[in-house]
Design goal:
single chain; about 180 residues; mainly alpha; globular
Length: about 180
Amino acid sequence: QQPVNELEAPAANQDLSESPLNSISVTPSKIEQQLRDLGVLEHFQKRKEKLAEARAIVLDTERDNWERVKTLPSLKDGGGIDDEIVSSMMPLWTASLDDPKGSILRWQLLENLRGTTNGEFRTNILEWIGEEESPKMRGQALETLAPMANDPNVTEWLEYLVESDSEPRIQERAQRILQNNAEGK
């Protein structure tokens, strides 16, 4: 029997019954059964249900605001943060601006909504950040805005930080974000 070259089509008269592809005897149903026996399918089904439950909590405006915010990490870990989730949190952001304990809520939102590119969130951060005195909060905002660095408004703000922020670490990080954005990273 002539060997099968993986890069060439087999000859028309070549017997493929001994080829590596035909030696695989595992069928999709066998694999599925093995995954079921190991509890893998059940694990992913439960995870999907937990994400759906977390999503429902976050989107439920009748629930306590802190419960909604505390549920965000579950959604973030499961890849469930989308524009609808971010937009649902924006009234909480706005309310936090007048709340003496609002910085805790804003920190949580900045942390858990990081990686999104929602325009409303970006605008809210940019409108607020100029008045923020805490370097830690400015740093948190900087990290949250990093994925949006190609937005002209964010770029302008980053350039301002490089030139004017009172904290050298903030200036340096803003410069790195601008450099990474210029390099396409």
